[in-house]
């Protein structure tokens, strides 16, 4: 990947009037903040923004989005869960767009702690999930991913592109100065996802349940909020691995 | 409890040079934010502040603290976990105090997403916990409470007062316009803690493990981050109940 892609993002899928864009990375890692991925879905003239992140990413994410769509045309912002790297920019995003923000009903009364929040622009996602649509006709599925790691967590599936936006699931923590956008070889990638999942995901039972439900969809890519995107055979290799993982409360004595 | 206590806080324990203070509640619930408790421990002239909360509580918490101690004498701020209602005021607290902030090593790279954070003032708590002391000689135990609900979560125990600051564990969500500081009758209190624990806590196994480890201490009160404080026989009644709870991944199909 060229240096410019780092900060300018990359189109992951494009067909007819439907486009999925990965919004790039911070060039400067000096802040010490964990690296995150943001994604934008555009259908016709309207957009859905996923997990746009906190204050310190805001200028870059705004700049990259603006290359693809007018900010006024973002109708929906999806927060997979309540962590600061996902949602702490909420007041900024409410200010700069007219979008409605969707987040688990569990966190509706927690996000106002970030500061001034207009409740009329928040929409709660019920535990069982649902669908969110653009006014131009695209429909995204909001699929329960609770306890992975957040108790109120969602993955988002785009049936047009087949991309599963998996939130923390599938996340990697890159070593300093190492980044790649796609997983080329699952075995080589494994060392930087293994510890992350063992520590953050709450149990193997919950992982297996998520894998079984996700596999009901045709998945072309798994796009996590941290690390690299799984595509081609890495999709199934990751799902097979996750389905058999022992983690969290399974190995509790490792962490106390 | 008198109306003034709501906003002015209340001393929970006082003996010799050691004092534990509950820092009050918001008078105005209009923000829609979930109610939270903040606590302050003063030993001699120095203080430790626990889970001070987000932006919207900041003026009240600062005002109440200032009734008891000079802000410059707060040496340590403890964050039990990464949720916005605990930690989103981090930049404000770093600005107004000279304190070091302690948080799970798991969240060290997540909190910078709140905004500008000086890493030299952050201290990571290892998974196994440890002790944090004031320069005046008080030592607080940091006890692992992982997956309850956060994967990187701590309870804090003060051996002088016997108070266990339990983070979300023991939390209640009060119905609108109902508040009480102490649990008088556990059975009456149960309906407003039951759903909270079933949904937020990740499994009965993890709850039982936490209870067993906490019971190694002499507990005079359990002071959670939400809801009311358990004391007298309500302490054991709560621990017995929690030890046998089925929750989270035990009853996963309830939530998908």
Descriptive report:
The structure is a homodimer of 256-residue chains. Chain A starts with a helix and ends in a 13-residue tail after the last helix. With 256 residues, chain A is of the alpha/beta class. In chain A, 25% of the residues lie in helices and 24% in strands. Chain A is globular. Chain A has one domain (3-255): Metallo-beta-lactamase, Chain A (4-Layer Sandwich), CATH 3.60.15.10. Chain A has helices at residues 3-8, 58-68, 84-87, 90-96, 186-189, 191-200, 204-214, 233-243, and strands spanning 10-15, 18-22, 39-43, 46-50, 74-78, 100-104, 122-125, 130-133, 139-144, 154-158, 163-167, 221-224, 230-231. A seven-stranded mixed beta sheet of chain A has the order 1-2-3-4-5-6-7, with no helix packed on it. At the A-B interface, α3 and α7 of A face α3 and α7 of B.
Mean pLDDT of chain A: 94
The third-level CATH topology of chain A is: Metallo-beta-lactamase, Chain A
Biggest sheet statistics of chain A: 7 strands, mixed
How far apart are the first and last residues' alpha carbons of chain A, in Å? 41 Å
CA radius of gyration of chain A: 17 Å
Main sheet: strand order of chain A: 1-2-3-4-5-6-7
What is the number of independent domains of chain A?
A: 1
Question: Assembly state here?
Answer: homodimer
What's the overall geometry of chain A?
A: globular
Helix content of chain A: 25-40%
**Secondary-structure element order of chain A, N to C:** HEEEEHEHHEEEEEEHHHEEH
- Count every helix of chain A, treating DSSP H or I runs of 4 or more residues as helices: 8
Structural class of chain A: alpha/beta
